[in-house]
């Protein structure tokens, strides 16, 4: 067996998941990326050709128990152990109680919440063998405060509670569990989920979000990848149960504060 630590990333062929895969592959982990279709894997390799021989890209569906069973068998046969799990697969459909369709609601719950539950439950025996595994759930600030989708917000809030529950449940196996809750991160997510069809409208949305952030910038996938890399490391060996807003301060936005004057910002203290 390879001596590298083995890390599985669901949704690891696009956006945040792909950036995590690239970061961890560069840190000498053995990275397994699970994706729902071949097209996303092909796009990932076109965007990141350097990952062709560094990441084990496989196809699977986190909402299907049969597919997860096959994934577990594959990891057991080829690697024998799992040191880290990053639950990054996710979908979003914008909508309120009145506008969101029941099947859209169910799809988000199946992939964003039931998926991490099934993957974690099924792969637990492999993580027990690691003698110190780490699980990281990629949640969202939409799980901490309502966003543009009732289904997405509820699924991510549920994912945060799954994190909290598993801390005590899996702690006796020396398995740490944490959530990362990104704000707006520029990825393919909004295009892949048909929320935007053209770059101009997407750019307007990003600019509107940027000015609402105290740091006046939105996130990059690398911001999330860096935090994942830290939480997987020995330096984070006493961190479990954290739900970490990684959103440029947007969760602490205070619209009652007066705007800062340029002169004050430039004044040297």
Automatic annotation (TrEMBL):
It holds the Pfam family adh_short_C2. Gene3D superfamilies: NAD(P)-binding Rossmann-like Domain. Residues 5-183 form the Ketoreductase domain. InterPro entries: KR_dom, NAD(P)-bd_dom_sf, SDR, SDR_fam. SMART domains: PKS_KR (SM00822). Signal peptide: none annotated. Belongs to the short-chain dehydrogenases/reductases (SDR) family. This is NAD(P)-dependent dehydrogenase (Short-subunit alcohol dehydrogenase family). The lineage of its organism: Bacteria, Pseudomonadati, Bacteroidota, Bacteroidia, Marinilabiliales.
């Amino acid at each position: 067996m390879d001596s590298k630590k083995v890390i599985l990333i669901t949704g690891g062929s696009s956006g945040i998941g792909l950036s995590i895969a690239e970061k961890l592959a560069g840190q000498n982990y053995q990275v397994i990326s699970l994706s729902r279709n071949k097209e996303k894997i092909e796009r990932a390799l076109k965007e990141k050709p350097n990952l062709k021989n560094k990441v084990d890209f496989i196809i699977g569906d986190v909402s299907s128990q049969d597919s997860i069973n096959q994934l577990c068998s594959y990891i057991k046969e080829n690697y024998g152990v799992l040191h880290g799990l990053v639950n990054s697969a996710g979908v979003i459909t914008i909508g309120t109680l009145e506008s969101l369709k029941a099947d859209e609601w169910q799809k988000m719950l199946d992939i964003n919440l039931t998926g991490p539950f099934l993957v974690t439950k099924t792969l637990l025996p492999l993580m027990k063998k690691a003698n110190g595994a780490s699980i990281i759930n990629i949640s969202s600030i939409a799980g901490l405060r309502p966003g543009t989708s009732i289904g997405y917000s509820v699924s991510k809030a549920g994912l945060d509670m799954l994190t909290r529950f598993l801390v005590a449940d899996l702690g006796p196996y020396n398995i740490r569990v944490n959530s990362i809750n990104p704000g707006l991160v520029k990825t393919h997510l909004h295009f892949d989920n048909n929320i935007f069809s053209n770059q101009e409208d997407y750019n307007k949305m990003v600019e509107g979000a940027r000015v609402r952030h105290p740091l006046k910038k939105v996130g990059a996938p690398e911001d999330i990848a860096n935090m994942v890399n830290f939480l997987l490391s020995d330096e984070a060996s006493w961190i479990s149960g954290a739900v970490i807003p990684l959103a440029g301060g947007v969760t602490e936005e205070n619209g009652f504060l007066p705007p800062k004057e340029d002169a004050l910002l430039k004044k040297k203290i």
